[in-house]
Design goal:
Blueprint: E1 4-5, H1 21-30, E2 35-40, H2 52-58, H3 65-78, E3 84-92, H4 98-105, E4 114-118, E5 121-124, E6 127-130, H5 135-146, H6 149-167, E7 173-176, H7 194-211, E8 214-218, H8 234-243, E9 247-250, H9 263-271
Parallel strand pairs: 1-2, 2-3, 3-4, 4-7, 7-8, 8-9
Antiparallel strand pairs: 5-6
Helix pairs in contact: 6-7, 7-8, 8-9
The structure holds zinc ion (2 copies).
Amino acid sequence: MIKWDGHSHTKFCKHGHPDELERYLEQAVELGFGRYSVTEHPPLPERLIDDERLMAELAMDFAEMPAYFDYVREYKKRYEGRLDIAIGLEFDYLHENYAFTERIAEPWADVLEDAVMSVHYLPGRGGLRCIDYKPDDFRVNLLDYYGSMEKVVDEYFDHVEQAIETAVRLPGRKRIGHIGLIEKFRQALPPVDEAQIRHRLEKALPLLKRTGVGVDVNTAGLRVATCGKPYVPEWFIRECVAAGVECVYGSDSHKPEQVGFGWDYFEQAMRG
Ligand SMILES: [Zn+2]
Ligand SMILES: [Zn+2]
């Protein structure tokens, strides 16, 4: 098994870190990684969320896309033979707006090697709302809107299923991003029913198998105080492996020192 970090960000991420990619890559080489996917947040539709300040820090602009691809391609060349750098994007599942996703992906179809498809937004109070912004924002704009965690969780996994179906149409290797992100603020919100999560993950498994979409075993949840665990449970990783669904570790690094974070968890789960 190649040591591979399949989900990472760069200075092009406005909620990330200004460090150059080199610092991330040096950390990856030092930790013995053989492959490293750079998966930046591509542009979002204008006014997707009714919060100008939040919108400004979510993703890069259309005008920055060529510079991003040039930037990663340059490092890909520079690291040839030392580290296999894959050029990717972390797409947002945009409900009923595949046209926009296509507008992002299409010009880069020949270049894109990795497509992580993530659900970060759900319909909520006053329009789409971020599920991973802040606990208070979640409470006011999602929990109060749906009336219970159970309903939010069900809505979330309905979107995850649609995201998997949509990811199939993207170029390159495809993975569903941090499938358990809905638990990011679990310790600051009313409890989530673990049986419900299990049920929804089990329901998603045949869909992953049928579509060939893999799983981003995203460990970022371990860094979040209100979550304290990776976004993909160990039992699910084992079931995916048994079903032939590809599982790829993802640090979701937004800073160089986060590269490799939680690798042990992944490795142990994969060993079974
Ligand atoms: Zn990010
Ligand atoms: Zn994400």
